[in-house]
UniProtKB/TrEMBL annotation:
CDD domains on file: AAA
Annotated TM spans: none
Gene Ontology terms for molecular function: ATP binding
Protein name, as recorded: IstB-like ATP-binding domain-containing protein
Family annotation (InterPro entries): IstB_ATP-bd, P-loop_NTPase
Domain (IstB-like ATP-binding) ranges: 112-198
Signal peptide (residue range): none
Amino acid sequence: MASLFETEPSRLELEIDAICAQLGLNEIARKKGLMVLEDHVRSIHLSATNHQIDNCAQMLKGFSLHLDTGPNGSVRPFYVPCSCLKQWNEHNAYIKKYVMHHFPNQGRKAAVASLQESLMPEAIKGVYLYGDPGTGKTTLTIAFANEIAKRGKSVAHVLVQELVAMLKASFGDENAEKAGDVTDRLREVDLLVLDDIGGETNGE
């Protein structure tokens, strides 16, 4: 989508003007949040295209960047499911009818009880799943994240190994600001899933 706005820069400006008017942003807030505003416009256009989740070009695959106003009228980014993720969820809705027979019954009940507890308002904010490879940790976190997203909450699912690699690559170069922008956005989501913690050390 970058080529679209390179050939039609005025279109990007017009869309940013409309967003600022909708959010009630003044010129100072516009200048400070210009990078996020541009990313938001591109994200909206990406979400409007007909694509599959496997080739989703969003900054966070499967999630579209939206904006709200924060304290003092500043721009506050958050993420919602991209059109491709919504389509994927609808297509795979039948999976709810599956019974995971390869999970011991006691283990299934314990996993469900743990996830239900974490959904309660009074529950602690963090849940850590650990176990040997192939035991279903990622399957559970994706199912949990989908349930939260269906409740209208913003969700980000991040592979820690890729996040760490991006942060390392940004040290001391022009990508540092963009990396900081990504981490700021991750702090804003309602649910952040960090997948494969510890996997980033395998190649060190």
